């Protein structure tokens, strides 16, 4: 039997920071030899209806998925939902709620960016987002894309780390987001996300399983929260990720074994916002057949 090549975490243009269509993602997965995939857009399930039949046509097993923003003890987290009934109204209500809040937060982020000394306007951002699905929602990555392309800011000291030869130049757009627009940073605009427990309930009610996404990123310097988080009813941990080196992967794999949870793997591929991340870059330290067997036990019906 051919070796399973699995990537359960990637984003289409139905994410506010994704680049490609669902069909294009399926094609890229086929080219990379992926045999089991999931498109997990931010707070949106619209990619599933396009991606699922495209994957079936190419012989790839496809898990309907989503990545949802939520909070636990005032810390923002991401939870992946797999095997969900993507027609469940809860997911469309979730998208509407987040989208409406992001519209307001985007204008706050613009003001904060201007206070850093950058002369950009609302029209600049509207023009940049004109081909996006989330047209009225701007991200830290989008601000970075605009600023790094402006010739007048070629020598700006705040941007120098994000140039090709800079310390943060590997994934410049998303690194700029993490450094300036993520929770607790100077350009952060608060959005009221559902609680972790609410999201687990929504995923479970839709027939899916809930998996903690890339904890090595979201729980940096907050590792004391991992154990209480894992006691909330989660079904798995994204142990293998482009963000996790081998020691981190082993740590989260051992937590799965300790708490009897499913270990999953995903690259978090986005395209241009994270150019250093490629499809299939999961840094898995165990035989992927083990993960495939576990997935089969959860989702024997998935084509």
UniProtKB/TrEMBL annotation:
Domain Polymerase/histidinol phosphatase N-terminal intervals: 6-72
Coiled coil: none
Pfam families: PHP
Top-level lineage group: Bacteria
The protein, known as: PHP domain-containing protein
